[in-house]
Write a structure and sequence with these properties.
Strand order of the largest sheet of chain B: 1-3-2-6-8-7-12-13-11-9-10
Order of helices and strands of chain B: HHEHEHEEEHEHEEHEHEHHHHEHHEEHH
Oligomer: heterodimer
CATH architecture of the domain at 5-252 and 456-494 in chain B: Alpha-Beta Complex
Structural class of chain A: mainly alpha
Structural class of chain B: alpha/beta
Shape of chain A: flat
Strand content of chain A: under 5%
Shape of chain B: globular
Mean pLDDT of chain A: 82
Number of strands of chain B: 13
Number of helices of chain B: 16
Amino acid sequence: MNVDPALVRHVARLAGLTLNDDQVGGLAVELREILTHFETLGTWSAGHEEPEIGTEGGCRVEREDDPDPALPNESGTLGSPASARGHFRVPPTIQGR
Amino acid sequence: MRETAREMARAVRLGERSARSCVELSLETIARLDRTISAFVHVDEAGALRAAEEIDSRRDSGRAVPPLAGVPIAVKDNICIEGLPTSCGSRILDGHISRYTATAVRRAREAGCIIIGKTNLDEFGMGSSTEHSCHGPTRNPWDRERTSGGSSGGSAAAVAAGMVPIALGSDTGGSIRQPAAFCGVVGFKSTYGMVSRFGLVAFGSSLDQIGPIATNVDDVEMLFEAISGPDQKDATCLEGEARGGRHDPGMEDGGPRIGVPREFFQAGLDPVIENLILTVLGELARDGAEIIELDIPLLDASIPVYYLISAAEASSNLSRFDGVRFGARIEGEPSADAMIRATRTAGFGDEVKRRIMLGTFALSAGYHDAFYGQASGMRHRMGEELARAFAAVDVLVGPTTPTLPFELGERLQDPLAMYLSDTYTVAANLAGLPAISIPAGHARGLPIGLQIMGPRLGDDLVFDVARAAAATPSCRDAAERLSSWPDGSADQGAAE
């Protein structure tokens, strides 16, 4: 499995992480080793399946969706590092505004 | 000889001792030992003493007290308790205080347990050594230079060292059973859906289960019964008939049929562990169990399947940690996007970043089918193969870990070697099956765990076979060494 620095930077961008050159190099080596080991999966010829939540056996919990009252805004923002009047505070989301 | 949770609760109920004395014993033991073990990341002394006073007052006034009244319990620090910090061992949750309480904790409290504090873990449950924590490593009580296992290493070490008789951990790929094995205690992961995940910070949602750790099977079962049950707050939590009925392991007909997968006894397994597990199997056979060797070939693929699926789920679950809603934030960035990237980059440790990268890669365009899709298909087939095995045997038995507890730092630079620590435990999570690790003996002064895995909804069957295994001479010897710890420790000099 070829994992080059460009691929690592691309995945880091998707993952919301910023990596320096040393970290990119290190992760390229580690991911290459891990993914090469994991490529053995191909030898089992499993075929594609949709992801499952929970276990096999056909025993799923599907109940009515009964909505409860939501948390008040003030309570929902209590754990935030920056909030005001029941809203989250963040830096500008559009550059230059 | 240390007191079990059952004995302690009975003494409190009968008025032979106070709940306060139980809490004080726990706090004294933590103060004496945790300086060198580092099992706890937060001790709630005031809250624990307050809860003890309430129980004592209730009993003294003649009112009934619940079955686990006065029993101190430790809770892994990825399980939320309102008003207490929840760090998940991560800098990104620095300063975070939980706003609600996990259902499992609420039920444990209703059963009379007293929360002593929160225990250390690998960051967000990702690790097998409790070294990947912003709080530093938890050391193994049997040898302080070795890991406690992980990710529930703090809970397992706290029980092994007698700081608490019982604890809660979480198990996504073996995170209760592997540290239980390394610390010489009992750890149980139930059938997926038996215990609510509400209030457990999600790592791999289709794999995670909260579960008990204790010194003996009876205490583990008692705590499991207290915390399990339907929960409207977790849609994957089983309810009604879906929770199944009692399984009969056929003890009256000559003992259980024990399946021994050959895949659990291949290269990579330490010979001293292999010999001990085979000895216990021989002892079980003498007690009437039927031992059946069998092949379950797909077990050989369980590590890549597990790591691809769990990393993919983790990369999605951990996207919520963005510096906006919880914990810490890197200030001074010019835009929200830059702030989120800076916060996640500074807040997550190396192993969490590695898993997020692996999971994001496995889900990304061009690689999804070859990795995540392939792993999902394998998971399905593995479940079918295990179900077929359980048509022929009652339980599967083998080692919990391929090695003895390894030295601190030994595998930090080799993530693949660390992942292989979970070789025997991940299949139970992938198939949603119940599994327990019990102490089977010691080698070189270090504990060895025996794993018993049952069919889906066969949780009671696993407990029954675990009790039979715990009664064998090898397991009894391990239990006696734990009961007399630290006198039986390999590291007596550092015990105090």
